[in-house]
Amino acid sequence: MPKPIILRIGEDIKYNHDFYNQEFLKKYDVISNPHTDRVSFITALKNKEFGDFSAIFRPHFQTGGEMGQWDDELIALLPPSVRIFASAGAGYNWADTEALGRRKIWYANGAGASDEAVSDTALYFILSVFRNFTRSQLAARTADPAVFQETHKLIATISQNPAGHILGIVGLGSISKKLAYKAKALGMEIHYYDVVRLASEEETRLGVTFHETLQSLLEVADCVTLHTPLNKHTKNLMNKNTISKMKPGARLINTARGEVVEEEALTEALKSGHLSAAALDVHYHEPQVSRVLASMENVTLTTHVGGGALNTRINFELNAMKNIMAVVGHDGQFTGKPLTPVNEAAFVNA
């Protein structure tokens, strides 16, 4: 019996060669997509160039996006044999996961692989926005003794310890649960808002306080950190109205997706002093960073490296393979559900 076909998009595997050769290739035949633009990829699907493949495999989230948005136009062309789209990376705003679910195609991401790295990044941001580390670093890098002395004196008058302050988490998933644990070690009090409330036992274990509404959380938090996927409900979640609900002098952190925060509203709030500081790993027009925000000494900026650790990349790649193996049997039929499903509701209700 021929092995099920797996369509790989983007670059080949880089890290988990033993698992790939000894486990994955024993079960599947992997073919790669040679088409580097959407038009030719669509033509290949229409011509059934890849045959009746059983899964789409994207081992590296920085490649494999040459066909653009996975919308109804692309999804409608997939053969009925497709069981799962397994991708590296945590984000999935480039794929209509609900549309995939309606076709009975699982979508699985790399959830869990980047939890440690992203939560560490958010922890660094908390320290930076409370202690004004970016302002201090910029001053030190001038190598100017006068600027050094001036900033040395200023920082002590405008900085605070995170201890004793309320950290407001928007979206309490696996990453932000790790962050809650780390922030509590700094002496912070943890509050959260999520569309799905944790079980009371888990809230007690984590030592977190739930808010029924986003506004309720924003009104009490000294620092708000965002951990939500980007979708139609969360785009511009932090806008002029919601930012105005935040405490005067509060701080805003975003390690989720750039378009969750309306940058003009954030800029206004920082200029007016309503917000005292911000930290962004992700940006609205990424890879273009707002030049206005970049000029502000009370804004910490990084280049979307929240999950950017080698451990993350290795596990993203490995998890994508394991998700396929959990779903696609030797005959190409379903054998179970992925380890990290994203579209379970849409799949089950289809």
TrEMBL record:
<dbReference type="GO" id="GO:0016618">
    <property type="term" value="F:hydroxypyruvate reductase [NAD(P)H] activity"/>
</dbReference>
<dbReference type="GO" id="GO:0005829">
    <property type="term" value="C:cytosol"/>
</dbReference>
<dbReference type="InterPro" id="IPR050223">
    <property type="entry name" value="D-isomer_2-hydroxyacid_DH"/>
</dbReference>
<feature type="domain" description="D-isomer specific 2-hydroxyacid dehydrogenase NAD-binding">
    <location>
        <begin position="125"/>
        <end position="306"/>
    </location>
</feature>
<dbReference type="InterPro" id="IPR029753">
    <property type="entry name" value="D-isomer_DH_CS"/>
</dbReference>
<dbReference type="InterPro" id="IPR006140">
    <property type="entry name" value="D-isomer_DH_NAD-bd"/>
</dbReference>
<dbReference type="Pfam" id="PF02826">
    <property type="entry name" value="2-Hacid_dh_C"/>
</dbReference>
<keyword id="KW-0560">Oxidoreductase</keyword>
<dbReference type="InterPro" id="IPR036291">
    <property type="entry name" value="NAD(P)-bd_dom_sf"/>
</dbReference>
<dbReference type="GO" id="GO:0030267">
    <property type="term" value="F:glyoxylate reductase (NADPH) activity"/>
</dbReference>
<dbReference type="GO" id="GO:0051287">
    <property type="term" value="F:NAD binding"/>
</dbReference>
<protein>
    <recommendedName>
        <fullName>D-isomer specific 2-hydroxyacid dehydrogenase NAD-binding domain-containing protein</fullName>
    </recommendedName>
</protein>
